[in-house]
Write a structure and sequence with these properties.
This protein is of the alpha+beta class. It folds into two domains: 70 residues; 72 residues, Chitinase A, domain 3 (Roll), CATH 3.10.50. The chain is 40% helix and 20% strand. It has three helices and six strands. A six-stranded mixed β-sheet has the order 3-4-2-1-6-5. Helix 1 packs antiparallel against helix 2. The longest helix has 31 residues. The radius of gyration is 20 Å and the shape is elongated. The N and C termini lie close together (9 Å).
Length: 162
C-alpha cells in the first residue's frame, strides 16, 4: 500500500471520528441542561451524569484533534528490508501458519483499523508505546516478535518494511 494514501485514510477517519465526538458531546450537553432533566431532589442525577458524559466526549474530541494535527504534520520516512523499524514504518508480519498482520507505526491513535480497498488487507495503527510497537522499534526484516501475552503469544516474523 502507498503510505501517502494510508496517511490520507487515517486523517479522513480521524476527521469523521472528530465530527461524531463533537456531535455526541453537543447532544450530551443539551441533555444535561434540558429542563426535563432538572433534578427534583438530590437523588436524581441524570443531568449530572449527562454533563460528565458531555465532558468526556469533549475531551475525546480534543484528543482526536491533536491526533489529526500530528498526522497532518507527519513526515513519512522510507524504509526498506535493511532499515531499522521506526515511526511511520508499514510493517508486514507473518507467523508459521502464514497468517499475516500489517501494522503502521504512528505517533497517536493506536488501535485504529484501516482497510486497504485494493488489497483488502486490514492495517492496524500502533504506537511506539504499545507492547508490539516497543518490540518492533529497531528491528528489521527477518527478525521475530511475539504478539500477545507471554504464555499465549504467537511468534511472527517481520517479512516486509515499507
Amino acid at each position: 500500500m502507498n503510505k501517502n494514501h494510508l496517511l490520507e485514510l487515517i486523517i479522513k477517519k480521524l476527521t469523521l471520528d472528530s465530527e461524531i465526538q463533537l456531535n455526541a458531546a453537543k447532544t450530551a450537553h443539551e441533555a444535561s441542561t434540558d429542563e426535563e432533566n432538572i433534578p427534583d431532589n438530590k437523588y436524581e442525577t441524570l443531568a449530572l451524569e449527562a454533563s460528565y458524559l458531555a465532558q468526556g466526549q469533549a475531551n475525546r474530541a480534543q484528543e482526536i484533534k491533536r491526533a489529526m494535527s500530528a498526522y497532518r504534520g507527519l513526515e513519512l520516512k522510507s524504509f526498506d528490508n535493511e532499515s531499522r523499524i521506526g515511526v511511520t514504518a508499514l510493517v508486514t508480519l507473518a507467523n508459521a501458519e502464514d497468517i499475516e498482520r500489517v501494522v503502521f507505526i504512528g505517533p497517536l491513535e493506536g488501535g485504529m483499523r484501516i482497510t486497504d480497498r485494493e488489497t483488502e488487507k486490514e492495517i492496524v495503527v500502533i504506537t511506539p508505546a504499545s507492547p508490539l510497537g516497543r518490540n518492533l522499534i529497531g528491528k528489521s526484516v527477518g527478525d521475530s516478535v511475539l504478539i500477545g501475552a507471554d504464555r499465549y503469544g504467537r511468534e511472527f516474523e517481520i517479512i516486509e518494511v515499507i
